[in-house]
Amino acid sequence: MTQEVRTVQTTIENTASSQQNQDVGKGRGVYISTYGCQMNVNDTERMYSLLEMQNFTPVEKPEDASLIIINSCSVREKPVHKVYSEVGTFRKMKEKNPDLKIGVGGCVGQQEKDNLIKNQPMIDFVFGTDQIDNLPTFVAKTFEGEKKQVQAKFEHRSPYHIETMVRNPGVATFVNITKGCDNFCTFCVVPYTRGREKSRPLQHILTDVRHLVKRGVKEVTLLGQNVNSYKGDEGVDFADLLAKVARETDIERIRYTTSHPKDFNQKLADTMAAHQDKVMEYIHLPFQSGNTRILDRMNRNYTREEYLEKIAMLKRTIPNLVLSTDIIVGFPGETEAEFMDTVTMVQEVGFETIFAFKYSPRPFTKAAKFEDQVDEETKTRRLNYLFDEHDKMAFELVKRYEGQTMKVLVENVDREDGKIQGRSSSNKLVHFLGTPDLIGKTVDVKITKAFPAVFRGELL
Ligand code: SAH
Ligand code: SF4
Ligand code: F3S
Q1: Ligand 2 in reach of 183 Cβ (< 6 A)
Q2: Both 118 and 103 in a single domain?
Q3: Domain of 231, in residue numbers
């Protein structure tokens, strides 16, 4: 049996199991509130697709729903608080509409399991990140009257076989290639909420990309917590996968996220350069801290110098490369001088975009138990300082793009005012004026004004 046939069979099996309770969604609306990373955005699409097979109708407002699901994130404390405040809001709706059912999925669901139901009696069911394919079954049971279901097992033994399910993929979409993470950075909850790392078989990914191309997709982002530790069948690594997607499918643009600096090698950089017609010249490479002692305490497995060497190698190998990064400030024990190493790292590499966060202690993680936690005020001060220093640099850095011509893939056009939104090959958001027939086309745009987060331009 070929891999392609097997993927189709999985779909049929999924469909068959959901047909058992196909009527449950008739006349009922479903609303999913989504937090967190692209994995969650993709998981939400999967949930909507499965629930549509049960005849639920997706609705825009929670007030119109009979089923509300919160697809939660636990990476920092803030998004966890949002789950509780949303549950509070939905509770009031439930008082008015007794048919309304509320479920919590995603990383907080995985982390809290039964605790959520104990603390929040209004929640009808909780499910973990590995239980999405069983959602139709426990939704049906919930509407049949079964109370307080908790499904948060990891399917440790089964291989990672899921096919991409997006309702309206549009011009650019995501394809999962790995799930989970085995790196155990000492600050991070993801290895606990997403389980052990697994890779999808190469042929399944190629089949998905080909199907998406048929549906009009021009750009895919290969998605994983740690894409460059991808291990496909027969010794295929991430660089091989990238080359195969470029060579063996008709997709126009390929991106990927996220990469870990320790796994980024010359082979991958060479592959990007060799396929620059399709693989975009943009890399998101989180460094987290610019200080080697802190990196060691974070269990990141590289030093400041090693990170800088990789950046030099990447810039040498990939012409016009654009980089972005993630940073944590106020990690336990971080001194003022160690924090300044992070600031100089941003300046030395010349990141045009940074995503920086105050360290937030997470359940199960080692760093949450470190005794030398940094106080909130210091964290806030350091974060603001870092953003200010970055702003000073970034506005200057991006000025060099003014007057340049960029290849922009048109994603959206506002039909009323003709405002187009697209992305350059270097992942810059570009706004310009045009017509709806340009959606899905790659056009030349001259940049007239460049800000760090968005460019303005004119269609050539
Ligand atoms: N897998 C990706 C990132 C996953 S989480 C990677 O390894 O790069 C996304 C970002 O959230 C991280 O890069 C980190 O900067 C931030 N983050 C993770 N845990 C955090 C914590 N406990 N406090 C603050 N920021 C955190
Ligand atoms: Fe978290 Fe580190 Fe894994 Fe990224 S690599 S998901 S930061 S443990
Ligand atoms: Fe959040 Fe889970 Fe993603 S913790 S960042 S939704 S993997």
Answers
A1: yes
A2: yes
A3: 159-280
